[in-house]
Specification:
There is one protein chain. The protein is of the alpha/beta class. It has 2 domains: 231 residues, 3-Layer(aba) Sandwich (Rossmann fold), CATH 3.40.50; 203 residues, Glucose-6-phosphate isomerase like protein, domain 1 (Rossmann fold). The strands form 2 sheets. Strands 1-2-11-10-8-9 form a 6-stranded mixed beta sheet, with helices on both faces. Helix 11 links the parallel strand 6 and strand 7. Helix 5 packs across helix 21, helix 12 crosses helix 13 and helix 15 packs parallel to helix 21. The longest helix is centred in the first third of the chain and has 22 residues. The chain is globular, with a radius of gyration of 25 Å. The mean pLDDT is 95. Bound molecules: 6-O-phosphono-beta-D-fructofuranose. The site of 6-O-phosphono-beta-D-fructofuranose has 14 residues, from loops.
């Protein structure tokens, strides 16, 4: 490794520190500046971003872009797309971008993609295999042990083998305006406590249920326990040993392990060691999603991710949305002292987006050691939290408005709601009104002076107004970005997920950490095995 430069040693980092130490205008002074507002509007792969409520000035933006340049973020991005072994502790490439490189659908792929023709061919072959299977299932072409067609799919997996397809299934599973239940039911079980699987299986008919066991390693104790229970449930319902494999599918990077435990080759779908679990929704791990929404919609999600990849690779840094989101996050985390980052979707179909982003962001950048093995002295990943914004307003937004933490917020809005209700437009108006009001209130706040004046005008005495003002004033100056999707579609969801993937990548590149290993999850697993052996559990 060439001489490692610690982030805080970079001239741009020191310039940013000086800017942060200097007094800065409050957002309520910056927001009325129309040219500034216009300069902080961005678009990428159909997603619009309003960053006017980020606490940045042209000088700060210049220094942030200088930091990205000094850290050679875009050169590091080229290394990823070209399949260099950037996951240095595991000596692996990182090529989830190859999974959405195009090809199966009508969209032409690059003649020779940066990751090479061999990987592209392997990806296309597996994409065809698992989407063929999804279409076969949807057409009633897979039958259970009584010969009846399968109607329910139960996905057994955890972490990246659950969160992505589960989130996307909720987001995209009922897109049609009719909102009729989809022709196929897909269920997700990740937790190994018996209640979870038991309540999922209770209403299902064993002879018409197929299990997808998703595990990149095919060793995850929780998932293997769930798989054993699923087999037992089928057997207890009368499924013979010989017919079991008809209702079992494995998605894994270890097909030999799967086939050794009874999964037939035609029911084993592959991903590769260069696909991180938290980046695998684009692979065969997306099979349950493809079953639910169909091949065409799944390919549209890949196309959305591909469109964001093209934006990321081909857009100059000053207009490059993933890079800019990374830089605003670093300004807030490392220079304004925000230790958490909040994501607030304002579309309830995105109810599972935050858990998905938590794994992507914090399993990638929740690291304290730089790529060269030295201990980081700068802050790395903030704690990512959040949830549906409308509900959050009535729950924890109090802390964001009047607490002691600076909590930057990504607001995610979808302009066009599904129909499905006579008053859908009114519902949507209320949703988007609240999204914008919250962002504005967090930015503007309300000073003690203005609050006291408001209270006097509302009839309080001078003494009462003075006494109440501290309790009812708002510091404001809370930074946020508004991300807008015109509609929630497979394409726009794909673009949104890739946007966050590349934001995570850019932050890791600047912090000088490896975003693609996850040694932090190993000790707990080892300890569980140790305790098991000690107690003969
Ligand atoms: O323990 C963390 C983790 O390894 C994640 O990185 C991964 O997505 C999840 O567990 C499930 O792993 P597998 O797909 O190998 O079962």
């Amino acid at each position: 490794m060439s001489h490692f430069i610690r982030p805080e040693q970079r001239p741009a980092w020191q310039a940013l520190q000086a800017l942060a130490d200097a007094s800065a205008p409050h957002l309520r002074e910056l927001l009325p500046d129309a040219p500034r507002h216009a300069a902080l509007q961005f678009e990428a792969a159909g997603i619009q971003a309003d960053a006017s409520r980020q606490r940045v000035t042209p000088q700060i933006m210049q220094a942030l872009l200088q930091l990205a340049d000094e850290a050679q973020v875009m050169r590091q991005a080229q290394a990823m797309f070209h399949g260099e072994a950037i996951n240095t502790t595991e000596q692996r490439p990182v090529l989830h971008v190859a999974l959405r490189g195009g090809g199966l659908d009508a969209t032409p792929t690059a003649a020779s993609p940066p990751w090479g023709a061999a990987i592209a061919a392997e990806v296309q072959r597996e994409l065809a295999r698992f989407t063929d299977f999804a279409e076969q299932l949807r057409a009633g072409g897979v039958s259970g042990f009584t010969g009846e067609a399968i109607t329910d799919v139960v996905n057994l997996g955890i972490g990246g083998s659950d969160l992505g397809p589960r989130m996307a299934s909720e987001a995209l599973g009922q897109l049609s305006d009719t909102l009729k239940p989809p022709p196929f039911r897909v269920h997700y079980v990740s937790n190994v406590d018996p209640w979870s699987l038991a309540t999922t299986l209770a209403p299902l008919q064993a002879s018409r249920t197929l299990f997808i066991v998703q595990s990149k390693s095919f060793t995850t104790q929780e998932t293997m326990t769930l798989a054993a229970s699923a087999k037992r449930w089928l057997q207890d319902a009368g499924c013979s040993e010989a017919l079991l494999s008809q209702q079992l599918v494995a998605v894994t990077a270890q097909p030999a392990l799967a086939q050794a435990s009874g999964y037939k080759p035609g029911h084993c779908f592959l991903l590769w060691d260069w696909v991180g679990g938290r980046y695998s929704v684009w692979s065969a791990i997306g099979l349950p999603l493809a079953v639910l929404i169909g091949r065409e919609a799944f390919l549209q999600m890949l196309a959305g991710g591909r469109a964001m990849d093209q934006h990321f690779l081909n857009t100059p840094p000053a207009r490059n949305l993933p890079l800019l989101m990374a830089l605003w996050g670093i300004w807030n985390r490392n220079f304004l002292g925000a230790s958490t980052h909040h994501v607030a979707p304002y579309a309830s179909a995105l109810g599972r987006l935050v858990p998905f982003l938590q794994q992507m962001d914090m399993e990638s950048n929740g690291k304290r050691v730089h790529a060269d093995g030295s201990m980081a002295s700068v802050g790395t990943s903030p704690v990512l939290w959040g949830g549906l914004g409308i509900d959050g307003q009535h729950a924890y937004f109090q802390l964001i408005h009047q607490g002691q933490h600076l909590v930057p917020v990504d607001f995610i809005g979808v302009r066009q709601a599904h129909a499905g209700l006579p008053l859908a437009a009114e519902h949507q108006r209320v949703v988007l009104l609240n999204l914008q009001a919250q962002a504005q209130a967090l930015a503007m706040g309300r000073s003690v002076t203005d609050t006291a004046q408001m209270l006097r005008e509302s009839g309080l005495s001078e003494a009462q107004a003075q006494a109440m003002a501290p309790h009812r004033s708002f510091a404001g100056n809370v930074p946020s970005t508004l991300l807008w999707l015109d509609q929630l579609t497979p394409h726009s969801l794909g673009a949104l997920l890739a946007l966050y993937e590349h934001k995570v990548f850019c932050q890791a590149a600047i912090w000088g950490i490896n975003a693609f290993d996850q040694w932090g999850v190993e000790l707990g697993k080892t300890m569980a095995r140790t305790l098991e052996s000690l107690r003969g559990a």
